[in-house]
Design brief:
Domain Ketosynthase family 3 (KS3): 5-187
Distance between the termini: 14 Å
CATH superfamily of the domain at 81-187: Thiolase/Chalcone synthase
GO molecular function: fatty acid synthase activity
Keywords: Phosphopantetheine, Phosphoprotein
GO biological process, one term: fatty acid biosynthetic process
Helix content: 40-55%
Number of helices: 8
Number of strands: 4
CATH topology of the domain at 81-187: Peroxisomal Thiolase, Chain A, domain 1
CATH architecture of the domain at 81-187: 3-Layer(aba) Sandwich
Pfam families: ketoacyl-synt
Structural class: mainly alpha
């Protein structure tokens, strides 16, 4: 049996959290002992009303609804679709989690200093992705929105746009999805 002990190095990181657009801001947020809980902005509340009406109409009148209070990203609409070769129309149909993933994965690649050399490499993409709900918001599913809302396409979309030639798959194991994806990547 081969020795399974070998070093693994994290060479690039990136993150996006409420009130933190990058790792430095997140660290400062922690050092300042701030709280990210807050109310959804009026514009974002207006944007999700259609979804809330479909899923639970009673939540629209509840000021403590989980739809309107919590930890929220400030700019979920910020996405450079052109950079990833995605049309503006297709970008509208892509689950915000996929858009975030593409942006943050690219930032981690840049942080690792691999932006110039990763294209066409044997790099694999392993993603932990616990759930998807964006499809419930879209009324009509066409081929663009089907690709943009189906979670497994998250890994293949990144691989396609960066011409990565290693394995590309998504793991859904509830709360342990990311841990399992990291384990599989190490294997």
């Amino acid at each position: 049996m081969a020795d399974k002990n070998f070093p693994v190095a994290v060479i690039g990181i990136a993150c996006r959290l409420p009130y933190a657009e990058n790792c430095s801001q997140f660290w400062q947020f922690i050092c300042d002992k701030r709280d990210a809980n807050g109310n959804l902005s009026p514009q974002r509340a207006k944007d999700v009303q259609h979804f809330v009406k479909q899923t639970d109409p009673d939540e629209l009148v509840n000021p403590n609804s989980p739809f309107f209070t919590g930890c929220f990203f400030e700019r979920i609409d910020k996405f450079d679709a052109n950079f990833f070769g995605i049309s503006p129309e297709e970008a509208l149909c892509i689950d915000p989690q996929q858009r975030f993933f593409l942006r943050i994965a690219w930032e981690a690649i840049e942080d690792a200093g691999l932006a110039a050399s990763i294209f066409g490499s044997d790099t694999g993409v392993y993603i932990g992705y616990p759930e998807e709900k964006y499809l419930q918001i879209l009324r009509h599913v066409n081929k663009e929105s089907a690709l943009g809302t189906h979670p497994p396409f998250t890994a293949t979309r990144l691989s396609y746009h960066l011409d990565l030639r290693g394995p590309a798959f998504l793991v859904n194991a509830a709360c342990s999805s990311s841990l399992l994806a990291a384990h599989l990547a190490c294997e």
